[in-house]
Amino acid sequence: MSRVNWLARWPPSCPRLRLPSLKGFECGRFFKCSRLPTFKKLFEFRKPTWVIVFQLLFAEATLPGLRNVFGFGPPIPRLLFAVAFVYLVFETVADVEEHVENYLEYNTTLQVTIEEPRSAYMMMPEVTVCNKNPIYTSSFCKAENRHRIETETNKTCKTSNCETFISLYYQNLCSGEDSERERYRIVFGTRNNDEGRKANKYFYEWHGNLMSFEKGRELLSLLSYPDPGSLISMCLFNNKDCFSKFRKNLQPSYGMCYSLFAEGEEPVVQFETHLNGLMLNLNVLEYEYLPMLTTVGHVIMIHSPEEKINAAEDAVFVHPRATTYIGLQKEQVVRLPPPSRDPCTETYPPELLQYLEPELKKVYTTLVCRELCTQIAVLEACKCIDFRFIRPANVASVECSYVIPSQGQESSLTCAIEVTKNIEKNPLRCGCYSACVEDQYIKTNSALFWHPRLQKDVGNASTSTVYVYMHSNKIHVRRKVMQTSWKDLLNSIAGTMGLYLGYSYLFAFYIVDILIRGILEIVSWKIFKRNQNRRKYDEKIRRNLIFDTQYH
């Protein structure tokens, strides 16, 4: 058969010729074409249905590049457009990936602003007054306290240093006359004095062991400053007496201290001078200092009323016989919750809530959370409670001390110390993140000293004067913000697509719309063809049945 005769009898039963992309072919009722196809058309007949569907959709679209790549143009220009388009898409994806990685790092930056308080005044922070000498010598050497000191020492401290302190220094210090104390002061006060360093070490070891035991703390409270009048001679706030508002506060390092404004009930309205704040006259009491102590003066700790004292951050040291000015500037730190880097939290972890007192649950503080976390670890490992940390609620347990043996440990307090060292290596233990909003006070202090001749003349009646006041009613707010927010991420992605492809988010939505429409049209065509074939098969069966009926 010749090629001409083969083409003359071409019977194209091809429904794809109905597609508008194959121009120049008009099929009749029985799919008989009025024109003969060329070999180029024959190649196009072999394209799958889904290819032609997407070609039609992209050809109708006005998307830059995609129309040239997926349309019906000449193959060489389409190939060139395809190479350029693939390269630009690759660069776009690489840049977008970099933007997303930077966002997922959740880096933060710091914004500093100066704001005014919501009300017309600011609340005075809590002020705690301590003496660097934790023991009142006159109480320490009272005859009625001697037996109790020796008894509690034997119960709580079994080391040779404690025994040496009691048998040697305590006996000589309290059994002798005033001249013996002065001799100790001269000997211990000499520079590079090994004896003085030993005595100082023995004292703090003895003091720390007594502080670790409940009965020992009761004894130290008795030996420390019995009332505010023994430590403070005058207290004025806004030129009004505030002496009656002091509360006892036992500190491990400084003995009995006294706190003011613990409830945060005193507002500061005027900010002109230091006279609008707190004025304290503190008794120096140099004759009450133990000879082996190398530091003198007072400690003023300033902190928020709802937070526990952190001596390392809150303390300001006051020189004896000096006038010290402590100016305060309120600062507020605002942090971000997870998933930001260095996240914050406003609630205690669930595993710690059951051990908290109701008043501590009201305000979250990092210090309370970490102390309670350490306390629970000590309780589980050593079966005792460490006095240095918050006592857990709803737990009945003995305190750690040197006289309560633990499992294979030298003592339960030694066990507690080892557990604490291991726990504190992880600053984020128990999920104790920083508070989301934390009030701090920037302290600016200065001091004026009396002339040495005047200091010598006043003698035992000497005092130290302290002024604590607010600089201004402005709050320095340090707010952490995301270095890359989700809006910045979207803008970066849009800029990258516009730079490389000339696309916007609307064009991206258009591409998604084309893909969805193409898939729906292909699925609809498949369903239509399946139903059509089923109807043809049913019609064929029906005709066969009719034929069989007629002839049989």
Q: Supply the helix-strand structural class.
A: alpha+beta
* Portion in beta strands: 15-25%
Helix content: 40-55%
The description of the largest β-sheet is: 8 strands, mixed
Number of helices: 18
Which regions are unreliable across 5 or more consecutive residues at pLDDT < 50?
1-45, 404-409
Tell me the span between the first and last alpha carbons. 42 Å
CA radius of gyration is: 43 Å
Q: Average pLDDT, to the nearest integer?
A: 77
What is the molecular shape?
A: elongated
The count of β-strands is 17
Structure, briefly:
By secondary structure, this protein is of the alpha+beta class. It has helices at residues 3-8, 39-45, 49-60, 66-70, 75-104, 137-140, 143-156, 160-175, 178-189, 194-211, 214-223, 311-314, 350-353, 366-382, 412-423, 452-458, 486-500, 505-551; strands at 108-115, 122-123, 126-131, 232-237, 240-241, 247-251, 255-260, 267-268, 278-283, 298-303, 315-318, 322-334, 344-345, 434-435, 437-449, 463-470, 475-482. The strands form four sheets. Strands 1, 4, 5, 9, 12, 15, 16 and 17 form an eight-stranded mixed β-sheet that branches. The protein has a five-stranded antiparallel β-sheet with strand order 6-7-3-10-11. The protein has a two-stranded antiparallel ribbon with strand order 2-8.
